Amino acid sequence: MTAFDAVLFDCDGVLVDSESITNRVLCTMLNESGWAISQEQCTRDFIGKTVRSQAAVIEAHTGKPLTDAWMAEFYERRNAALRAELVAIDGAQQAVMQIHALCNGRIACASGADRAKVEMQLAKVGMAPYFEGHVYSGHEMPRSKPFPDVYLAAAKALKADPAKCLVIEDTMTGVQAGVAAGATVWGYFPADQGHASAEQLLEAGAACVFGDMGDLPAMFEAVRRSAASASTGDDDEHDLR
């Protein structure tokens, strides 16, 4: 087993509990625009995707163009709700702190969301210092998730081989992006998550799933010990020859 040189975290649903807030605002605005969509369907249809990437779907249901003004209002209302309500995923802050130490700072946040949102969220929950200079947005890439661009950019900036990077994701779209980048992906699947099953994350390419962010450092360290043990065994075998 190969030890990981860097860890690349998704943001929404992995580090911060933002997805229900964002989707509530989106659902409200879609209904106001004429699409009678339920909260459940909105979450199912939009989780892990950018709103703009679904412009054709939105326009088909509302009969109206998805304008810059509509998007600006969405961002404003979304950000106001996040500032008021956002909290960190249970165990995420401690996990990030420990992984940052174990990786000698080689961690990044690689999100499909816009940079302003990601940086605001990390600052609000106290994680910004651990990702300083290493926040990457799919909005700034040629392609966003499920394409690998944002993860490849993060790995390159950290001077890490993508094949030796660990990606932490909670959506099928994100898992697919990490796998396409050539990284190992662990799927985060808390018991109360409703937008993707553990089986779906595994089918998308996750190497494993786990349900408690607080378990991540121990899992990471176990891989490191296993890799070190395997390396020592190889060396001993070579000496015997």
Automatic annotation (TrEMBL):
**What keywords does the record list, in alphabetical order?**
Hydrolase, Magnesium, Metal-binding
List required co-factors: Mg(2+)
Q: Which domain of life is it from?
A: Bacteria
Q: Kindly give the InterPro entries that the UniProt entry links to this protein.
A: Beta-PGM-like, HAD-like_sf, HAD-SF_hydro_IA, HAD_sf, PGP-like_dom2
Recorded GO terms, molecular function?
Answer: hydrolase activity; metal ion binding
Q: Which EC number(s) does the record attach to this protein?
A: 3.1.3.-
What family is this protein classified in? Belongs to the HAD-like hydrolase superfamily. CbbY/CbbZ/Gph/YieH family.
Task: Report the protein name in the record.
Answer: Phosphorylated carbohydrates phosphatase TM_1254
**Organism name:** Comamonas testosteroni (Pseudomonas testosteroni)
